[in-house]
Amino acid sequence: MPVRSDSSVRVKSRRVRNARSREPTASSSPATSMGSAIRASVFAVSARIVASLRHAAQSEHMTDNDIHDAIIVGGGSTGLSAALQLARLRFRVLVLDSDAPRNRFAAHMHGVLGRDHTSPLALLADGRRELSRYDVEVRQDAASTASRDDELFTVTTDSGAALRARAVLVATGASDTLPDVPGVTERWGRGVHHCPFCDGWENRGKRIGVLAESAESFHQIRMLRRLSDRVTVLSHGPTPFDESQLAHFAAAGIALDDRVLDRVLTTDEGIRGAAFDDDGEIALDALFVSPRATPRDDILVALSAERVEAFGRTWAGVDAMGRTSVPGLWAAGNVVNPMLGVAASIAAGATAGYGMVAELLMA
């Protein structure tokens, strides 16, 4: 109803009303003030309870939608093989991949039934396509660290994502430290190799050099001698072999050269030999070396998996299935055994997948 200017009803401005409402009145007794304080306190507690219930509901929603059954760290042949076994049993699987497989330098892989002399990168691409049939997500994001609490793992990635899972498989492989001889790194996988099973047959009958700085190369040399009668051991200084091993070389017609290497002589496609520090040279078609493998196991270290001595250094210890000392944590492939080739790595991943399925069903 409109109010006339001469009405007995006066309309005060909002500022005046608010100011007066904050002023003490004759009826504002101590008891009234205490009651107001109690009501405010009850309201605050109620608000906190409501917020807590809302957060619990959100957490429950996260459990249903954002917790994976398994996170697989590493999308190489081991990790993809394990993911396949888990996915076929309808477990929710996430694969994190840094896109740096150990064998990415090689144009071909060998000794893999059905895939012999094909690209290792093509194998991984086919594996990812196969996993898409089961709605497995393969995410290009490296895991940086991990923790475990309340039976769940949290894997933090380089992009900042914090991912939760009931089980974790580490299949991050290993990295190779090559001999410090110029030309070795440049032709790694193209004329410079380490595995007779992987690249020996392709160099059968050719001039093969073996850079052998320790007696551990003895077995490698014996395998290569089966492939060629033109094998030369390059000790890059004083020989590390004992008299019985030297006698074996002599009987097998294996040459030994203890001059210090200066560099590998390279071509556009491979190598043509090696040069020594005395300006001498040797003609070679292939050079085999023994790199030092280092496990890419930061996640296993972060989760305090027990270590064992193997291959001249410490590695995470696992049982025959790939189970570590930490409940729910698994490891397989080159991250725990640098000697495994592609075929064996696929098998190790499948074996770990079988074990993870059994453990998840029992949880």
TrEMBL record:
Residues 69-344 form the FAD/NAD(P)-binding domain. InterPro entries: FAD/NAD-bd_sf (IPR036188), FAD/NAD-binding_dom (IPR023753), Ferredoxin-NADP_redctase_2 (IPR050097). It catalyses: [thioredoxin]-dithiol + NADP(+) = [thioredoxin]-disulfide + NADPH + H(+). Signal peptide: none annotated. Residues 1-10 have a biased composition (Low complexity). Keywords: Flavoprotein, Oxidoreductase. Transmembrane segments: none annotated. One of its GO terms (molecular function) is thioredoxin-disulfide reductase (NADPH) activity. Residues 24-33 have a biased composition (Polar residues). Residues 1-33 are annotated as: Disordered. PANTHER family: THIOREDOXIN REDUCTASE 1-RELATED-RELATED. This is NAD(P)/FAD-dependent oxidoreductase. It comes from Microbacterium protaetiae. The lineage of its organism: Bacteria, Bacillati, Actinomycetota, Actinomycetes, Micrococcales.
